[in-house]
Automatic annotation (TrEMBL):
Keywords: Signal. Residues 1-27 form the signal peptide. PROSITE patterns: LTD. This is LTD domain-containing protein. It holds the Pfam family LTD. It comes from Flexivirga oryzae.
Length: 157
């Protein structure tokens, strides 16, 4: 019976079949969404900087190395709103950056989209983190009845 795996492999090679291979360890996720605050507390309008900045998405570097986010972007489900990371922005090992919807001064821990209205839908929306055409990670927020009653909602991704 111990010869069975080698017989299967030999048969696969002889017939031109390919066998699935395990993904290499380096293919693991390097970035993920942390907290997705799609429905900031209270009313959305009037749109003030404070209200806009309470709506945010966080990106966490889950590696032990600094990652350059040049070329990365975040967008909503319908691709109406697109945030492009600054070309020089680097996210340290194990660090998290918060991308706020409104305006502010960019730092290593907080970035600002500069929007004049809300980006994320209050009831359901999906955030995508991409580099080029590759999707790195996604997170979907769906409002629960308790969140609807409280008029606020977030998801830990």
């Amino acid at each position: 019976m111990r010869r069975a795996p080698s017989v299967i492999i030999a048969a696969a090679i002889a017939t031109g079949m390919t066998l699935p291979l395990a993904a290499p360890a380096h293919a693991a996720t390097t970035l993920k969404f942390a907290r997705f605050y799609a429905d900031q507390p209270g009313a959305d309008t009037p749109y003030t900087t404070a209200r806009l900045n309470r709506e945010y998405i966080q990106v966490k570097n889950v590696t032990k190395k600094t990652i350059s986010l040049s070329g990365y972007l975040i967008h909503d489900r319908k691709n109406y709103h697109v945030y492009r990371f600054p070309k020089t922005f680097k996210l340290g090992a194990g660090k998290t950056v918060t991308v706020h919807t409104g305006k502010g001064k960019n730092t290593g821990a907080n970035l600002y989209w500069g929007m004049k209205s809300m980006v994320w839908n209050n009831t359901t929306d999906t955030a995508y983190l991409k580099k080029g055409s590759s999707t790195i990670t996604t997170c979907t927020y769906k409002q629960t009845p308790a969140q609807k009653k409280a008029k606020t909602g977030y998801k830990n991704c």
